[in-house]
Specification:
Distance between the termini: 50 Å
Radius of gyration: 20 Å
Strand order of the largest sheet: 1-2-6-7
Number of helices: 3
Strand content: 25-35%
Shape: globular
Largest sheet: 4 strands, antiparallel
Structural class: mainly beta
Helix content: 10-25%
Order of helices and strands: HEEHEEEEEEEEEEEHEE
């Protein structure tokens, strides 16, 4: 039915993120919230109850934006944010404590980056030294207006595990008796799943401040 198809691919309503003083806001738009099947088939891993894009270290079934605007609450005027890579999926928008900046993540095909925009500006600048990992919860926090803590992909993470033979077999047993138990999707069911889950979810905390980045603790 053409009407059902049009409804399924229609643009969702925009989402607005106000600063703490409510004088400014970021408005996120998405042309279509559905992901292409080719993208899911190529990079999506279903492990540990999570759907993961193994190339850019993000979750695949989350809402995203493909266009941002800044809104002046007093005048109602809006202006488009520039500097976002074409085709990037924008998520996790947050303002700094005083509203001096706002940040957001933008996921491309092979990596996810963290961008910052100054209040009154429409220019987004990338501030992360290391690729960002957005799996499991909020990937960054403002410690103050100038300092941002984010979850980074470790520089020494190494190559992605490859599926193949392992040192021990995968054994499944059944008692032969019927039981009523809950079922869970996408459990870790092999040594390869465990290796891939650890690879995708291992992070290193990084702190951006004043144009420099330092890592915190171990990964």
């Amino acid at each position: 039915d053409p009407m059902i198809e049009a409804l399924a691919v229609s643009s969702p309503l925009p989402t607005t993120y106000f600063s703490n003083d409510a004088r400014q806001a970021v408005v996120g738009y998405c042309q279509c919230k559905l992901l292409p099947l080719a993208e899911l088939a190529a990079n999506e891993a279903r492990i540990g109850g999570v759907r993961i894009n193994t190339e850019n270290f993000s979750e695949t079934r989350e809402s995203f934006f493909d266009r941002l605007e800044v809104l002046d609450a007093a005048t109602g005027r809006t202006a488009a944010i520039s500097g976002i890579p074409a085709g990037a999926k924008v998520k996790f928008i947050a303002w700094s404590p005083s509203g001096k900046y706002f940040c957001f993540t933008a996921s491309g095909q092979n990596r996810t980056d963290l961008y910052r925009v100054a209040a009154g500006s429409t220019d987004a600048e990338r501030i992360n030294e290391y690729p960002v990992n957005t799996i499991f919860g909020t990937p960054f926090f403002f410690l103050d207006d100038e300092t941002v803590l984010y979850k980074a992909v470790p520089a020494d993470l190494g190559p992605k595990p490859e599926e193949g033979l392992h040192a021990w077999p995968v054994v499944q047993e059944h008692s032969g008796k019927p039981n009523r138990i809950r079922t869970y999707q996408d459990l870790i069911s092999s040594p390869y799943d465990a290796d891939l889950f650890e690879y995708c979810c291992t992070t290193q905390l990084a702190v951006f401040n004043g144009g420099t980045t330092r890592t915190v603790g171990g990964k």
